[in-house]
Amino acid sequence: MQSQNRFFDDIARVANGAVGALSGVRGEIEARLRDQLERVLAGMDLVSREEFEAVKAMAAKAREEQDILLARLAELESRLAETAGAPPRRLRGKSPTG
């Protein structure tokens, strides 16, 4: 009976050692894959999320300012046309209302 318990204890130790070794191998593989992926992404010259959001906000602000200026231009042209007695000129591109 004692020899069977030792046998099972040895099997349990071997299994625990194998699980520990596999866990270490898994961690090493994940670390190497992560490093490789970081190297590949760094070589692609991608922008960061912060840079993207900053440029997106700048573009939105520029669009709003452009819409305001287009509306002002249309108003000034209509005033000028009223004083000159000529029909107002149509703007090319986007209308001030969208």
Describe the model.
The protein is mainly α. The chain has two helices and no strands. The longest helix is centred in the first third of the chain and has 42 residues, at 2-43. The protein starts with a helix and ends in a 14-residue tail after the last helix.
Give a quick precis of the structure.
This protein is 80% helix and 0% strand. By secondary structure, the chain is mainly alpha-helical.
Q: Which properties best describe this structure?
A:
80% helix; 2 helices; 2 domains; mainly alpha; 98 residues
What's the helix count?
2
Distance between the termini: 89 Å
What is the helix content?
over 70%
Strand content: under 5%
- Class of secondary structure makeup: mainly alpha
Order of helices and strands: HH
The radius of gyration over CA amounts to 35 Å
Number of domains: 2
Shape: rod-shaped
Largest sheet: none
Integer average pLDDT: 85
Tally of DSSP β-strands: 0
Low-confidence stretches: none
List the helices and strands and how they pair.
Blueprint: H1 2-43, H2 49-84
